[in-house]
Amino acid sequence: MARTIALILMVLVVGLAATPAVAREVDEKTFDEYFERFDAVENADGHAELSVWCREKGLSAQAEMHLRAALRLDPDHAHARELAGYVEYKGPIDRYSRQRWLDEKTLAEAQAAEIERERAEEARLEERANDPYTAEVDRILERISGDPYLKDKNLVPSEDYRPFLLLVERGTPFHFNQIGTVLVAFHEYFRDEFGTLFDLPKVTGPLVIIAWRDRKGYDDYCEHLEGVKPMRSRAAHYSPVSHEIVVHGWDSLRANPYRPVIDSGIFTHEATHQLIHYYSSKISGNPNASSNVHWFQEGIAEYCGNLRITKRSRKTGEVRYLFGERSASRASELRGALAAEDPVYFKLEEMLSIRDKREMHAAARRMAPEDWQSLTSLFYAQAWTFVYFLKEQDEGKRFWQKFLAVMKAELEDESNPIAARKTLGIEDVEALEKEWLEWFQESF
To answer: Is there a single domain that holds both residue 109 and residue 165?
Structure first.
């Protein structure tokens, strides 16, 4: 009776197909003990132990059946897995570590994959050691990890978008694949446009961009770098102190917070400043080279920063861009200012004389104490349209080569407002302002 009950229980545990064959070589006393032990089994541990006992007593079919029963009750039962010939894998190859228990053949595959990974990592490290760019990236990351201010800020390096190194605070709502791709294309086009004209050196080190998740992180870091918090209207800026572009997530996004789309023009505008400063420091030999012609700096940044797609490959996904896309928002700013009953804007005489951002802010406060920040935004629109005017008036025959001469002086760290004005050949400023603004009204 006991044997019948034990057999029924066995069938219920492992299924009808697993009913054991009786080993003829085993004596009846062993079978009596077997059924007694089986009757006491309560869980996977019991089945695993009984499987071992069966194997020792020559009950191979029963041993296999109890092993299967243990694994059916607990697929991760360590002892049962080992008895079945599996090895627990705790190595670094994800596709094998997810399986956890590997048979002999699969374990050999995993070990071979580990060796291949180690070789690839050694090759990668050797390549990095021989690559000045990646060596500099490593130095920057090491510096950040030891910087008391930055080390706990959760800044994560992006993929390789050389020459730009994007350090992104976790949780920043940017599509960095998109922006990285745009920046790479922007750099290539900048070199295509100006490289041969000015014999621009190759960018050998990373140009750092730090993206903060929110306005507070941005403000705090700017204050840490420069001693003052930036204006509330700012979404990003290039810091000549640290040679970094600093940007924040919240105000730089367009409408839908659930599917944020980055305004890449913010990045390409600041990247223009960053590239010009980099080239200027290399060409002039002065690491602290600085611009002294503010309309040029902001005008060229607005001009180069407004990209438009000229070609997109369906096969490779490659995108090509062209500088000089007309900005409807900037044009609207200047058009609105000129249409006012009492227009307030930077007269060309003053615009040409401003050396830097500090002088621009001071002039804006004099002209519109209650709304000076809007006026600084207007300066960008004016500088941008003025660069457009110099390039397109008379198909560029009058001013474009002279503008490039101003750019050359900037790159050689030899510029100033008086010299720039002289290079452009401006004698009658009022007449030129009238011509420029009339051209703008007709062209935009």
So the answer is: no
